[in-house]
Amino acid sequence: MYKLIIMKKVFLLLLAFSNFLIAQEVQKVEVVRTDDQISNLFDELGTNEIKLDLIDIIAYPAFNVTYEKIKNPYNSFGASLFINFSSEINTDWVDNFSLTPFYRFYFFNKKDYGGAGFFAEVFSKFSSGRTEYNIYYEDQPSGFSRWESDTINQFDIALGASIGQKWVNKMGWTFEVNFGVGRFITNNQTDDYNGYYNRPEATVKGGLSIGKRF
Asked: Parallel, antiparallel, or unpaired: how do β-strands 189-192 and 195-198 relate?
């Protein structure tokens, strides 16, 4: 009888020890959505999105609104409309108006809703604006010189690419950060009274946007 009790205690100890080892081997299981689940969530949120750039409102002020049509969880296209409400004539090449169509490629993981996460895009930009600049005149016979200011009305076309990141919550609200660079394909030399005035060869695309998908 005494040996039977000892064997029972040893068996219970071994059983408890084995349960402890099993508990130590339990790993955290991460739920990974299937493509069908992602498509269902994507359809629930909608395929249209409107967003407003926050930086342009603060910096100029200007209105920069973007419409994005999400074709599927991996691709989208759209356009950004920029209108500068500042009445000042800038000494830099700042747009008064621009239209920027784009095509975007999303690289999301299985936790995303689709049409979100890291992305890369190609874009074109059609812009116009008015710039102020100074011209230096030197009168050789008299030795006197002077500066005069003038303005330029320009229209530019650029091509470029950008990258960014977008976050989407379950209510369809989005937050996006992006940055890109484009190159003007139109002539960057403007005639003036004293030679040429060269505008920059590159343009920058970027910002912080908040939006709603529907």
From this structure: antiparallel
* Amino acid letter, residue 141: P
CB of 71 closer than 8 Å to CB of 84: no
The letter for the amino acid at 65 is V
Low-confidence ranges of the chain (pLDDT < 70): 1-40, 87-93, 109-113, 131-151, 187-199
C-alpha 67: how far from chain center: 13
pLDDT digits (tens, 9 = 90+) for 91-125: 556 788 999 999 999 997 666 667 889 999 999 99
For residue 108, the 8-state DSSP code is -
C-alpha dist (Å) from residue 162 to 26, 28, 180: 43, 37, 4
By the 8 A CB rule, do 203 and 125 touch? yes
3-state SS class at 88: coil
Instruction: Note the pTM of the prediction, 2 decimals.
Output: 0.70
User: In whole angstroms, how far apart are CA 54 and each of 44, 125, 191?
Assistant: 27, 20, 36
Strands 117-138 and 97-107: antiparallel
CA dist., res. 184 & res. 202, Å (int): 6
